[in-house]
């Protein structure tokens, strides 16, 4: 008599942010039944949009950008067919406190010296400042153990003082780059992560620093399009479906499934908890928690806020596509009329302003934040003074990212847990990356790799870092002595898909 084949293993993913989406996207078509449960009415998590109740248009919770060095996010976007919906910016434009513009672009010379020409021409730093910064950069880049050893608790601000930096260079150079990259103040920032931003982002590869800016709202990219893509491939995507608990057998050694907030239970062979770090402990039943000691460490992780300000003007104000504003209240301006072709009804301009690590704004009302931003814009571009503000939003995400405080690496758990069938994913898990979309996707890929290993179908899903340019690789990587590169190319190839999927 013919026997029915065993049913495919059932994977439940809790959380439809980029970590959960990346897990699902890499595991479709691999013989699993996949259910994705998201408590909100949309996918995308922290990288998403809300609908403006007046105009009905999608407004991002905040501008999200990535860099070319974000190889796994790029892989994810190609995999799900949205890679064509980003615009690469080969040049970063700075508008100094005195109103003069400087640009950062790769010039002659190999990495790590490719940005040297732009740096030397930067108008918002004097020659003395540049020499000082160059010295600090060299020390940071060549100290591969920065932030390690017995200085694990040192903040990056203290590291900078120890390496000859002064208030001007810290304020105008180091803070300008790092506060937005890591969403943290320098006096609370981990040295190792600060080094990683400069080395992997700016020094290793000629293109690594270039920005990828979405040309569509986040709600379309990681919301509507992902939902369709996953559903078309058989994933059961359930929105507005909050999970109350992740359940295990009596001794907590093997995962059994989940219980929803409405009391429904769903059996599963494997569960990925892809929720924010401050939610995961509350989801695990006590028997599981006792077996995953790393969960206790999450209680010591802290959050860092980001404020996004959306401004619709009745006329053009900003002549650039984007601008970094060293030494100002606002940090970045993105011109969404230029980047996404979006403007108020009847013409004008739509700007998104970003203020990272916005702890100091906690006492300010939304109107005060708006007015401080408008005052900066009027100093940067006089047209802003005459323009009428048609509409505005100030959105502060208090738990935008985990705070990259000194020694934070020790608090980040791996994706595999000691409980059979239970995996963790999220930008806060141990990926070596700060809280970014790249970190979230990496965590999802690592969780998916663990699942495939358990099913005896191992595959390398995690993409390697950007290949260091030859000289940068020799100078800056741990294998510098042997001149070797860091990764063997033993990952699965993903063929590019056309945009729009
Ligand atoms: C304002 C802001 C600006 C940012 N800017 C950038 C940037 O420019 N570049 C960059 O790379 N990164 C940026 N980030 C960080 C980036 O958004 C995050 O690192 C990334 O999106 C995290 O993805 P995640 O999947 O780990 O978590 P999340 O996106 O938080 O996803 C977790 C999901 O789990 C769901 N959930 C929670 N509890 C439950 C439950 N009980 N049941 C079911 N579902 C549940 C949540 O609703 C959420 O959708 C920014 C973040 C913010 C907030």
From TrEMBL:
Residue ranges, annotated region (Disordered): 478-501
InterPro entries xrefs: Amino_oxidase, FAD/NAD-bd_sf, Flavin_amine_oxidase, SQase_HpnE, Zeta_carotene_desat/Oxidored
Keyword field: Oxidoreductase
Keyword Isomerase in record: no
Pfam families, sorted: Amino_oxidase
Molecular function per GO: oxidoreductase activity
Boundaries of every Amine oxidase domain copy: 18-452
Principal EC category: oxidoreductase
Catalytic activity, EC: 1.17.8.1
CC cofactor: FAD
Protein name: Hydroxysqualene dehydroxylase HpnE
Organism of origin: Paludisphaera mucosa
Higher taxonomy: Bacteria, Pseudomonadati, Planctomycetota, Planctomycetia, Isosphaerales
